[in-house]
Write a structure and sequence with these properties.
The chain is built from seven helices and six strands. The chain has 211 residues and is of the alpha/beta class. A six-stranded mixed sheet has the order 3-2-4-1-5-6. The longest helix is centred in the middle third of the chain and has 21 residues, at 128-148. Pfam families: His_Phos_1. The active site is at 10 (tele-phosphohistidine intermediate), 88 (proton donor/acceptor).
Amino acid sequence: MDRLLVLARHGQSEWNLKNLFTGWRNPDLTERGVDEAHKAGRWLKSEGYGFDVAFTSNLGRAQRTCKLMLGEMGLSDIETIRSEALNERDYGDLSGLNKEDAKARWGAEQVHQWRRSYDIPPPGGESLKDTAARVLPYYIETILPRVMAGDRVLVAAHGNSLRALVMVLDRLNTTTIAGLEIATGVPLVYRLKADTTVASKAVLERDIDDA
């Protein structure tokens, strides 16, 4: 049994490009983001991966990334499940603000704490701990059973919702998670053991030309 779980952060969004806090706001992908999604799908196809079901968030940038990846793999018709549980972390009052402007207003150290700490939320928003509190139950109750039943599973979501998952899968603690960055459009390929722990992990980084 394969027990395949692939995590992919959406491609670059318009607000990633503008260095804005995005959260639950809904900007589209940039041209680069679209290209990243296409390349991720081609990479997975070239390595022989396939999927039986895909999970994504309620936000358009993740949904479009998922659709583009599956399209490259010839899997546009597979079951795709959307859930708010996989949404990006809610940045609250920071949403829509330029990150440099936020530093000028609140100070670089405070903004760094809001962005990288485990349990310090920005005003009106979620910490990574808060994000994990909705992501992990959904993973345990809905996604993991499909993996353990032998379905090959794709999760196309966001930097922080995926950080919450990777923290558990890679057994990171609340200190080491602060340094974890998940690149846009780069699939993380996990295979799980029968006890649900990780048997292997690969980060698929390679350029696929358009030929």
